[in-house]
Amino acid sequence: MTSAEAIRVTRLSKVHGRPPHHVVALDEVDLVLHRGTFTAITGPSGSGKTTLLQCMAGLDRPTGGEIRLGGTRIDGLSERELTRLRRGRVGFVFQGANLLTSLTAEQNASLPPRLAGRRVDPGTVRRLLADVGLGDRLRHRPGELSGGQRQRVAIARALATSPEVLFADEPTGALDSATGRQVLGLLRSLVNERGQTVVVVTHDPVAASFADRVTFLADGRVSGHLDAPTPRAVAELMTASEVG
Ligand SMILES: Nc1ncnc2c1ncn2[C@@H]1O[C@H](COP(=O)(O)OP(=O)(O)OP(=O)(O)O)[C@@H](O)[C@H]1O
Q1: 36 in Cβ contact with 197 (< 8 Å)
Q2: How far apart, in whole angstroms, are the C-alpha atoms of residue 161 and residue 150?
Q3: ipTM of the complex
Q4: What's the CA gap between 33 and 31, in Å, rounded?
Q5: For ligand 1, is residue 45 a contact (CB within 6 Å)?
Q6: Does the predicted model carry a pTM greater than 0.90?
Q7: If exposure means fewest CB atoms within 10 Å of the residue's CB, which of 48, 144, 155, 182 is most exposed?
Q8: What's the confidence (pLDDT) of residue 243?
Q9: From the alpha carbon of 26, which atom of ligand 1 is closest?
Q10: Are the C-beta atoms of residues 40 and 65 closer than 8 Å to each other?
């Protein structure tokens, strides 16, 4: 693994359940994600996108193969080690922002470093919220924010520990298309301006087109990659993989 690599996945497999009722969600996936790049993972429903993201983020354990985050093997870590990894080295954004409703935007964004037992510098958290366009919403609670603003708080929260990789699973799935585009534009700017490594799971060709590279999954395997994607090219390849 070279220092330019954020993640290297080798022959990664994940089988859910036991025979005869088992499901092969990932079947010997090989994948390299470079630092400072934006990758979209796409494919039909059930193709293994979420499972792959969760294994790479240390939220789920593979049943075979290797995952390296930076220089560290993370497959086979204990639950305790995985918790430490999740709190310090990776960030997540989900479809729903999952904010704590009684806390302000600033308090929500401060939670991960607090949980990791780190001193929280208010200036850093405020700067992050300003960077995601919420400098004037620090004391607002989730109920006082729009869906797009809530998702921006979730992104600021995910960045608060300066994660090596930011993972997002359908981050715009609950947003209208204009708001979704703003959130994707924000993720894109984090890559361009801060060199953040970003991985997004999406079934939306427009969302995938914000990435540098789209990786296609079909039946738990990588079926192809597309660099410098356009929405049309992504949609065509998606259709091909669904009929193929
Ligand atoms: N906990 C589980 N137990 C059993 N099977 C599971 C479990 N989680 C996922 N699966 C199965 O693994 C396969 C891959 O699921 P996964 O959620 O990764 O797909 P996906 O591509 O993200 O799908 P979608 O686009 O519908 O969210 C599916 O066939 C799914 O039914």
Answers
A1: yes
A2: 18
A3: 0.96
A4: 7
A5: yes
A6: yes
A7: 144
A8: 55
A9: 14
A10: no
